[in-house]
Amino acid sequence: MQAYLTFMALRLQECHRILKPDGSLYLHCDPHAAHYLKQLLDCVFGSLNFRNEIIWRIGWVSGYKTQKRGWIRNHDTLLYYVRSHAAFKKFNKEYLPYPEDYVRRDGKKPTGKGFPIEDTWNCHSGDELHSEMLKSFSTKKTGWPTEKPLDLLERIIKASSNEGDMVLDPFCGCATAMVAAERLGRQWAGVDIDETAVGITLKRLQDVSDTAAHNVDLDGFREGLPTVHLPPGPPKRTDPDRPVRSPRIRVIRWHELGKGERRPCPGCDRPKYFDDFDLDHIVPRAKGGLDADENLQLLCSSCNRVKGQRLTMTELRKHIQTERKFELAEQTLKL
Ligand SMILES: C[S@@+](CC[C@H](N)C(=O)[O-])C[C@H]1O[C@@H](n2cnc3c(N)ncnc32)[C@H](O)[C@@H]1O
Ligand SMILES: [Zn+2]
Prior knowledge:
The chain is built from nine helices and twelve strands. By secondary structure, it is an alpha+beta fold. The chain has three domains: 127 residues, Rossmann fold (3-Layer(aba) Sandwich); 96 residues, Rossmann fold; 71 residues, DNA Binding (I), subunit A. The strands form five sheets. Strands 1-3-2-6 form a four-stranded mixed β-sheet. Strand 9 and strand 10 form a beta hairpin. Zinc ion binds next to strand 12 and helix 8.
């Protein structure tokens, strides 16, 4: 689990970094990892940006699964976070249509848009989102073992984006998210490490739209050997309203991460190798201890000394900015 969380920590930080202020993140997981991932996401996104834990009932249970002693597992979890309040404001509320014979308590026909969708999905007859993999007769199956129903992805994409927006699935498998995005008029990008997944993705996107297939970079795939272009350094944002990087980066098992890579210090922004960071953990238990946002910060040794027990992270950053202004003023005076 720790190796998985380390793997995810780096990727979630990158997702957070490139997400626009009005962007959202949905992380699909099962109950083995859901609670650990929630902690990780609270650190990366800030717990105030956590919006919902969505329980997706996978489908009906039959055969040997019904024989299990104890409660039968039948749900996955989607953790929904926003990048900032702008994303929350953008949310497009969705409704399930009233059943034909539905009447209000006063006996009248309902006038509203339908039942607003709650945080439990596929849990009653008006709301069908069964897993593709459970449907042995499904014609939609692509052969990819973790295929998700298109309706599930469409619900998510409709709620948290508008036409023309960009949808990224960094673990896209058989590209259900891309197909859903294309159908809904969104731009999309998908990433997967597996060659078979890439093959299925190309075929699916060719099926959904000619334009989509033309947009897929086929370079190298004709021989069955994907060409991977690695640009130097992390990808850069091009939009002018780029959000300020959060100083609240906390990393679990940090010493295992990114050896040989340089990252900016969350205090002074100077790029440092991971080995040069100190782990700041001095927030007393009474004030949150290891769970405090201010704790387990990776700081360069100079920032760590300045911060000590006296300053919070925000105060530390302010202090550094003031120092810099003084230095600049001094240099200008000398000139
Ligand atoms: C749980 S599946 C996601 C399935 C996908 N959302 C779908 O609907 O089919 C995880 C995917 O991540 C891919 N994967 C695993 N490690 C990866 C890595 N390091 N980089 C990119 N993709 C990776 C796997 O090949 C797999 O397709
Ligand atoms: Zn520093």
